[in-house]
Amino acid sequence: MPKMKTRRAAAKRFKPVGNGKFKRKRANLRHILEKKPTDAKKRAGKTDYVHASDTGRVKRMLPYAAKN
């Protein structure tokens, strides 16, 4: 069987972790930061996990990322 191709855009956005989940970066930290609350900026700076309902989609885009 031929190799499956990885979606490169997804590979740049998501990284697999050991528990079968995928890490992702949060949004809203690029511009117009003066008017955003400090706690919102702190929260946006942290990494988050892909939601359970989207994990299947991410796994399909990254066939060799996680074998769980």
UniProtKB/TrEMBL annotation:
This is Large ribosomal subunit protein bL35. GO terms for cellular component: ribosome. Keywords: Ribonucleoprotein, Ribosomal protein. The keyword Secreted does not apply. PANTHER family: 54S RIBOSOMAL PROTEIN BL35M, LARGE RIBOSOMAL SUBUNIT PROTEIN BL35M. Pfam families: Ribosomal_L35p. NCBIfam families: rpmI_bact. Gene3D superfamilies: 4.10.410.60. It comes from the Bacteria.
